[in-house]
């Protein structure tokens, strides 16, 4: 029962979230914005409105690989969003620009998230080794130690995903507001942006639920 509640249900939520974002993006990437502004142009305008002129906007390969790197002040957009003029492209580009604005304003959740990145990456990298060790050393002191390490790892990952939620939702809110106030999109075009970004946000909720589910499952297993 614990496996169903803590693992399977979060897994289904994750699959639903991925299907939702894929469907929303595929739909709205086909709807061209009225003014024909590209994602790169939209990102530049959004950042300029906040007085940001030291961030490079670069084109990268991949599908929905868009991200903002506060370390080297780079906003990376996948080709379809960098060059695209669709509602989906503008929404994603403006969302990443929202992260740049967070960085400039020293938005606390973003700073916390960045501080957690190194330890979260380390935890994620050693998790498979610890899980494998737990299977091999099932039972006894060594097996118990592996479970305790897993609990710490999932705790780190859960905290990271929890902190990520306000970062992503805030960036989307900034994007939606500026796309309209800057005249990049008209009010009747915002439905496509809202649908795309709201679906994307659901994937972060699913990631948090998944991490929390594994943490609770490990805690319940230790108790049993």
UniProtKB/TrEMBL annotation:
The keyword Transmembrane applies. This is Zinc metallopeptidase. Coiled coil: none annotated. PANTHER family: MEMBRANE PROTEASE YUGP-RELATED (PTHR36434:SF1). The chain crosses the membrane at residues 119-138, 145-163, 199-220. Keywords: Membrane, Transmembrane, Transmembrane helix. It comes from the Bacteria.
